[in-house]
Amino acid sequence: MTEELTRYWTSPPQVRSKDQIIAACRKPLSPNCIRMLYPYIPRRSLQGYSPRMGDGDTGAPPKMGGQGDAFQRREKASEDYAIRQREKEKLLLLKKRLAEQQAHLQQLSEHIDEITKEQGGEHN
């Protein structure tokens, strides 16, 4: 604890400027320092606070089970479309690879048939 902070702590509680409070502590402010300076924070500064966003505003968490506003629906539709497009691309790639593998298997099957005919082991 710094000397200045000790002086503030032992003096009767009074409102100090933000700069004086921060100067009393080492940087960055530790949780312990913040706890000790809590009595010096004016309570009136917090009374006029009101939340900027209400329920359903953009940025608020979505309501459970509700449809949401137009922006949320549009955003969800856009995300769903992008996911479907990626899945479609993956499916086309898989179909292409499957066709290549089937063609390769057909070539191998034909090659095996040629080898067995050349050896004449069976009546083909």
UniProtKB/TrEMBL annotation:
Entry coiled-coil feature ranges: 84-118
One Pfam family, short name: IATP
Keyword annotations from UniProtKB, A to Z: Coiled coil, Mitochondrion
Domain of life: Eukaryota
Subcellular location: Mitochondrion
Compositional bias segments (type: Basic and acidic residues): 71-80
CC terms in the record's Gene Ontology section: mitochondrion
Keyword Coiled coil attached: yes
MF (Gene Ontology): ATPase inhibitor activity
InterPro entries named among the record's database cross-references: ATPase_inhibitor_mt
Family of this protein: Belongs to the ATPase inhibitor family.
Function in brief: Inhibits the enzyme activity of ATPase.
Record's protein name: ATPase inhibitor, mitochondrial
Species whose genome carries this gene: Colletotrichum orbiculare (strain 104-T / ATCC 96160 / CBS 514.97 / LARS 414 / MAFF 240422) (Cucumber anthracnose fungus)
